[in-house]
């Protein structure tokens, strides 16, 4: 890998910040989607017939919770990148030197 000039480093950091800001918007949409799915499931599935909580319902609930957790984690990480608080940790694979 070739060495990058300070100008290229600055451009790359700015590009990562812009992409992180876009990702934050997408993650917020994902959280709204999972929230709407959970609410729909809770109203029509759980509250309508609470005594018929099935294995499929528990799998759906686990899927929703895991995806919400991952969305929140990514949202926090990308907010930090966009705010330059933790720009060194842009990805787990390739850390960026400051």
Polypeptide structure, described:
The structure is a single chain. With 98 residues, the protein is mostly helical. It contains two helices and no strands. It has helices spanning 6-46, 55-82. Keywords: Membrane, Transmembrane, Transmembrane helix.
Helix and strand arrangement:
Elements: H1 6-46, H2 55-82
Helix pairs in contact: 1-2
Terminal Cα span: 17 Å
Question: What is the residue-mean pLDDT, rounded to a whole number?
Answer: 81
* Main pleated-sheet profile: none
Task: Characterize the overall form.
Answer: rod-shaped
Radius of gyration: 19 Å
Low-confidence stretches: none
Helical residue percent band = over 70%
**Element pattern in H and E:** HH
List keywords for this structure.
mainly alpha; rod-shaped; 70% helix; single chain; 0% strand; 2 helices; 98 residues
Give a nutshell description of this structure.
This protein has 98 residues and is mainly alpha-helical.
